TrEMBL record:
GO BP annotation list: tRNA 5'-leader removal
Assembly, per entry: Consists of a catalytic RNA component (M1 or rnpB) and a protein subunit.
Name of the protein: Ribonuclease P protein component
Family annotation (Gene3D superfamilies): 3.30.230.10
């Protein structure tokens, strides 16, 4: 059974974790998002029955791009929720999500649709 958790192990926490992704990223983008992705071939987390690769998400939502804290937090919630629901489909990667100007003008549905397209791009790219 699939568990849809977004716990501490699912997040990039330290500056070192972020620096690893920023150093040699694969970029995926859309009109309002830039995702930096770094594969994690050797990081495994032990599950009850087997070992599974764990994806991790980091958010870099700049105040320069989204002025109001309410809007920044809304975008963060939408990104985390989309990641939580799609993390089992993604390959073993670390992801940093950055936003571009104008994201605060989108409604939640539009944000989710853009993220779904990017998740599909990432899955397709890592299948090959």
């Amino acid at each position: 059974m699939t568990t849809y958790k977004f716990n501490r192990e699912s997040r990039l926490l330290t500056p070192g974790h972020f620096q690893t992704v920023f150093s040699k990223p694969i970029r995926f983008g859309s009109r309002h998002f830039t995702l930096l992705v770094t594969p994690k071939p050797h990081t495994l987390v032990s599950d009850k029955n087997n070992s599974i690769a764990k994806n991790r998400l980091g958010l870099a939502i700049a105040k320069k791009r989204v002025k109001l804290a309410v809007q920044r937090n809304r975008v963060k919630r939408q990104v985390r929720e989309s990641f939580r629901l799609n993390q089992d489909n993604l390959p073993a990667i670390d992801i940093v999500v950055m936003v571009k100007s104008g994201i605060d003008q989108l409604d939640n549905k539009a944000i989710n649709q853009e993220l779904e397209k990017i998740w599909r791009k990432i899955i397709q790219r890592h299948k090959n």
